[in-house]
What we know:
The protein contains 15 helices and 15 strands. It has 430 residues and is α+β, with helices and mostly antiparallel strands. It has helices at residues 28-31, 51-68, 70-79, 88-91, 99-103, 117-140, 190-199, 208-217, 222-249, 263-274, 287-297, 300-314, 317-331, 369-372, 408-424, and strands at residues 14-15, 24-25, 93-96, 151-156, 164-167, 170-177, 185-186, 280-281, 285-286, 337-344, 347-354, 376-380, 384-388, 391-397, 403-407. The chain folds into three domains: 14-205, no CATH class; 224-317 and 413-428, no CATH class; 330-408, no CATH class.
Amino acid sequence: MRTLPLLLLASLQTLASCATDGDYEMNDSDKFDELGCEKPVYEYLADDSSTEERIDDLNVYATKRLASYQCRVDTILAQRGQVGAADVSKTYTMEVGSRELCFNDGFGFADFDIDSQERYKDMKTQVDYAAEFLATLHGDADGRPVPFMQTLAICPKEGFGEEFSLSGGRLFVNVDFAQIIGNSFQTYDARDLLEAWDDGDHLHDQSDKIQLAWPFINPTGTFRTSMRRGTLKTLMRLAGKLLNIREKLGGSDSGARSAVGDPGLEARRLIKENVSEGFLLDGEVSLRDTAMDAVEAATDDELYCILTEWHGDVGDPERANLADQAGVAAMQGKIKNLDIDVFQLGFLIHGNSHFIDVDLSGWFTQGYGDLTRYVEVLENTKSVNIVQIGIGLTYSLDDVNVGVEFHVDKAVQTAGIERALEFCMPQALP
């Protein structure tokens, strides 16, 4: 599911008509991409510059190159109607690793230098590819940070080591330098890196359980992306309806409800449609019924307060990001093996995955656990249905005769109305 276009990042230069002296004229394709976003220009150091000097200079460029992609991320997300995305260059850092970082001061079976011009240019190209990869990943994650990865480091591959690895929040792209002979190395373009990410090739040092659960952990995979974006659409629609109802009150100090419609009646209807029927307060009292009764008895000021607080909760894009993680957590222990058929917007996507009960705390955003208890999970023996916004993610079982239906979008809405009542009408709660 790729949303940011993948670019050929090799520089295109136009030979000037009078450039008999070897000079080149820079054209617009060198300065701007097809979306009109400006690209930083890199000036190579002198031929006699050292590896250390070139690494330092490339790291300065890497920061600028990653920051330049924010324009693209903003454009793509705006086309989806999404706002509030984190800045990609403040979310992630990127570096050409030093010998100390890449080999941890140990003996490395790799030739760590970019003294040749060929390797120097290859490393600059790899920086471009890595920046595009991070920007694409950020866009695919809807501008929300990937909690288990903060830095991308480019290193030479050590001997027969892995090309892609994750350690301590740092994603290593280990490029294959030509050993002993040759002055260049194999670069990995953004598509290579994205495919390796989706396949979980960076998880070699992780447990078998984590590797098997990657389709559910991966924030840019089909499973979580469908939940997150579907939930976000539902929440944005509800947020708009709450604002419309609040406007009918004419302000918190109006003292009288508008003659156009009954805001209280409309609010009760939204509660009935969007709050989980099965969530109980103290394990006994229905929150949905309690909220409907509270709204019916509320003064104008109290109703205005409830609408405002509920809107603030469901209108926060981060809540959709937490909701899809809460949905995955709620599934733990319910499903072991799945054959997955994902129906999304008329397209049928097939895939096989395994879901194993693993500790997700290091892989998910802090705070997702607060929403898990609001996810409505129902077991049945026929099929697995994940219901949200009319987009059915349908799962057929393989060896396990258990199905699960859960409502992720209602988790946010249910949590939001409870918080609104706690703040505006605590006396209405048991």
